[in-house]
Amino acid sequence: MIEPPQLLKQRLFYRGRVFNFEVSRLRLPNGVEGEWECVRHPGGALAVPITNEGKLVLVRQYRFSLQGRILEFPAGTIDPGEDPATTVKRELEEESGYRAKEWQSLGKFPLAPGYSDEYIYAFLARDLEKLETPPEQDIDEDLEVVLLSFEEFEAAIARGESIDAKTITAYYLARLALTSGS
């Protein structure tokens, strides 16, 4: 078994609304000491929603950090003590105006392990119904709902359209689940 690094000092530089930023001084098993920065995040949950007509439900959302809009699956941050399945059901309704009757876990994956401890919990959402009165979108979100076929989405990836990594990863997890029949 590999020995874990020894924590020598830890400093919290920023406590934010959603995440914290800390710096840790570590001594690695090989004796090297250094500082590592980490964004501490509660995690997120994402839906890969597929309509009964076989279309993917995505949102084109403005992201301040990128100063532009990107194509994403509906997703959100997990509230303290909340189950990821609860998070994803809420976010699907708020962001897309759809509700799913059938849910399947696609597992979880680290989003950006080079600088964050965030995990994304991905779910396949099927048997969708359009809500007559969708819940209010979060006030800090600027998004539009986009329906694409699997082929149109793959073409958008190939064109280099602005699509985030969690969406592309979850899409391929969903494709694997759909082709394996699980």
Description of the molecule:
Keywords: Hydrolase. One of its GO terms (cellular component) is cytosol. It holds the Pfam family NUDIX. By secondary structure, the protein is an alpha+beta fold. Helices cover 21% and strands 43% of the residues. It has 3 helices and 10 strands. It has a 4-stranded mixed beta sheet, sandwiched between helices. It has a 3-stranded antiparallel beta sheet with strand order 1-2-3, with no helix packed on it. It has a 3-stranded antiparallel beta sheet with strand order 6-5-10. A hairpin with a 5-residue loop joins strand 2 and strand 3.
Task: Identify the notable features of this structure and list them briefly.
alpha+beta; NUDIX_hydrolase_dom; 182 residues; hydrolase activity; single chain; 4-stranded mixed beta sheet
Topology:
Blueprint: E1 6-15, E2 20-27, E3 33-40, E4 44-49, E5 56-63, E6 68-72, E7 75-77, H1 84-96, E8 98-110, E9 119-130, E10 143-148, H2 150-158, H3 165-180
Parallel strand pairs: 4-9
Antiparallel strand pairs: 1-2, 2-3, 4-7, 5-6, 5-10, 8-9
GO molecular function: hydrolase activity
Pfam families: NUDIX
Organism: Pannus brasiliensis CCIBt3594
In short:
This protein is an alpha+beta fold and 182 residues long. Helices cover 21% and strands 43% of the residues. The strands form 3 sheets. Strands 7-4-9-8 form a 4-stranded mixed sheet, with helices on both faces. A 3-stranded antiparallel sheet has the order 1-2-3, with no helix packed on it.
